[in-house]
Write a structure and sequence with these properties.
- It is a single chain.
- The protein is α+β, with helices and mostly antiparallel strands and 265 residues long.
- The chain is built from seven helices and eight strands.
- Strands 2-3-4-7-6-5 form a six-stranded antiparallel barrel, surrounded by four helices.
- The radius of gyration is 22 Å and the shape is globular.
- It starts with 21 loop residues before the first strand and ends in a 9-residue tail after the last helix.
- This is Flavin-nucleotide-binding protein.
Length: 265
């Protein structure tokens, strides 16, 4: 039997509200992170600024030391985007790294109940806590750039002009986040209401209840005006078709999951 790794429960990652929705399963949490097109990375700018900063970034879980490690193994989070001078300087100054919080979420359905109080979403969310450092090793940086590029469209790195030149590398920053804690939260199933509302015939006869599945659809690729490749490459088209199909299947199947009795909204 294979092992199932979980993030240990700590004060910073233990889910208190609707704890039955929580997951600490490493593979489940990493999957949510990798499926999210945008990660929100939050950090504290320092005592001179009372407000926390949040930057939208692209990121993927991975292991440079063990590239074949799967989502159920301990992994780092590599993020790329606009790394502000403030963020980069803070990451450089700390020997351990800049403390960051990474969040991701996917909405899978609009849950419409008898009362506004019990309306909800079907969703998947994940939060990671860790220490971010700038990747300075050229080999690791190139590996991380390929990892992140291929997370946008698989095999895109090998089907574009690579490797980046020195100028491109110099102007591109990658942060490697060593994860110390993580948690996820998943809501699926149908709408659920209070017993008193189910027994109200006038209410149940006029209010529609159910779930509107929400899923991401990738549209048909549109060529650039200066594009000279006649046909959309198969690696792009097959990804577009497969992504939409999987997203729709998940959202529709999430509605069919039976809710626990204690679930109210």
């Amino acid at each position: 039997m294979g092992r199932t790794l979980t993030y240990p429960k700590k004060d910073i990652n233990t889910v208190k509200r609707y704890a039955h929705r929580a997951t600490y399963d490493v593979a489940a949490i990493h999957s949510i992170i990798n499926l999210s097109q945008v990660l929100h990375v939050s950090f504290s700018p320092g005592p001179e600024d009372p407000f926390p900063a949040t930057i939208p970034m692209i990121g993927q879980m991975g292991s440079f030391e063990y590239p074949s490690a799967d989502l159920g193994e301990p992994l780092d989070c590599y993020v790329h985007g606009y790394v502000s001078a403030r963020m980069a300087n803070l990451a450089r100054k700390s020997e351990e790294g800049l403390p960051v919080c990474i969040s991701a979420s996917k909405v899978d359905g609009l849950v419409l109940s008898l009362t506004p109080y019990n309306h909800s979403y079907n969703y998947r969310s994940a939060i990671l806590h860790g220490y971010a450092k700038l990747v300075t090793d050229e080999e690791e940086k190139m590996w991380a750039l390929k990892l992140i590029t291929d997370s946008v469209v698989p095999n895109r790195w090998d089907n574009s002009r690579t490797p980046p030149d020195k100028g491109e590398l110099a102007s591109t920053s990658i942060l490697k986040v060593k994860i110390v804690a993580g948690s996820g939260k998943i809501r699926d199933g149908c709408a659920s209401d209070e017993k008193k509302d189910y027994q109200n015939d006038e209410l149940t006869s006029r209010v529609w209840t159910g779930v509107v599945p929400v899923y991401e659809v990738l549209g048909q690729p549109v060529p650039n005006p200066d594009n000279k490749v006649a046909q959309v490459p198969d690696y792009i088209q097959s990804y577009v078709d497969g992504y939409t199909k999987k997203s729709k299947e998940y959202a529709e199947n999430a509605v069919k999951v039976a809710l626990p009795k204690e679930e109210q909204h």
